[in-house]
Amino acid sequence: MTLHVTRIRTFIVDGGFRPWTFVKIETSDPGLVGWGDCTDWGTPGPVAAMVDRLAELVVGQDPMQAERIWWELHTASARHTGGIAWKAMAGIDSALWDIRGKVLGAPVWQLLGGKLRDEFRLYWSHCGSTRANRAERLGVPKVETTDDLRALAAEVRERGYTALKTNLFRLKDRPDAVPVSTSGGVAAGDISGPTIRNAEAVVGTFREELGPDVGIALDVAFRFKASGAIKLARALERFDLMWLEVESFDPTALRTIRESTRTTICTGESIFGTQGFRPYLDLHAQDIIMPDLAWNGVTMGKKIADLAHTYDVLLSFHNCHSPITTLVSANVAATVPNFYILEIDVDDAPWRDELMTHPFTIENGHLKLPDRPGLGSDLLESELLKHPPVEYPGAR
Fold first, then answer.
1. pLDDT digit string (tens) for 177-193?
2. 31 exposed, middle or buried (CB, 10 Å; 0-12, 13-18, 19+)?
3. Which residues lie across from 9 on neighbouring strands?
4. What global pTM score does this model have?
5. Which end of the chain, N or C, is less packed with Cβ atoms under 10 Å?
């Protein structure tokens, strides 16, 4: 009998400050499995349920036919393109590519055309904000004041990182600097003077301590409408950001933001597929795109990267999920010429590496490209089961 998929399972695992949702595909070849990731911070249960639904269409199929299976699932999900359906599709897709590599005895990057690089410059994500909000959970020093932020900047330098991304968060010694304008717990859309001062305090402290050559990004996601984002981008021009991360579902509004400031604009973690990215690329609405491969998979992720390259646009994959997404991102990023830099949560679940048969290697702020068949590591089911999910206050 030819190789075929026999079972698809999901594991929702405690990821420290968000749940990780893993996909395991089993095959008719005993011991041959593939692992994928479809982590969604807010709705892991519905995503896992969607994987179960799509599994009905995949079980019995040849796992080597990842492209065909992607488009079959795409057709089956046409009336709910994006969102939970695509996240489930992405987890299945990455696991299929993992199997393909293992069968052929080659890493996924080899199957995608070969590598352009052996390592990836990393930026320390949620730098400061994780320690401000979740230090005790992760066993890291608390960041509460400007002096704490200075100490963290020194740690960034000592550990060899040349770039970081941070967020808005409260500093006790800056009561005049409020992280975000809210009304009833909902982001107001515009931006206040105290919130601009908060951004200047956080970004300015990092810039003062790290000097002009370390990349500093600020992520504000959907917090502000275009007018507020423009005010913020202009206020931060003097700090020469690596980028300001802004999201909008209106590409024309995003282009207006970009054209209104000298600050580099990055977007895209909430966009699905080439059809989703194309309006933004057509308008050159951003400087850098940030596709999420836990939500787009290997098959579509490579297509998005190649499409962006035709528009002369850099990309930096969104990578704040599980270690499997790090491996997926590395395998695709190795094959594209427009790769810029890769996200990594340095302050992560202390048990992250314990889940992996082959933890990835980070040296001097760079991730080494794995060369093992498939994505580069399996997960240990026995270890996954030791870490059931918990409540994650503030997880987005």
1. 999 755 555 665 899 99
2. exposed
3. 24
4. 0.96
5. N
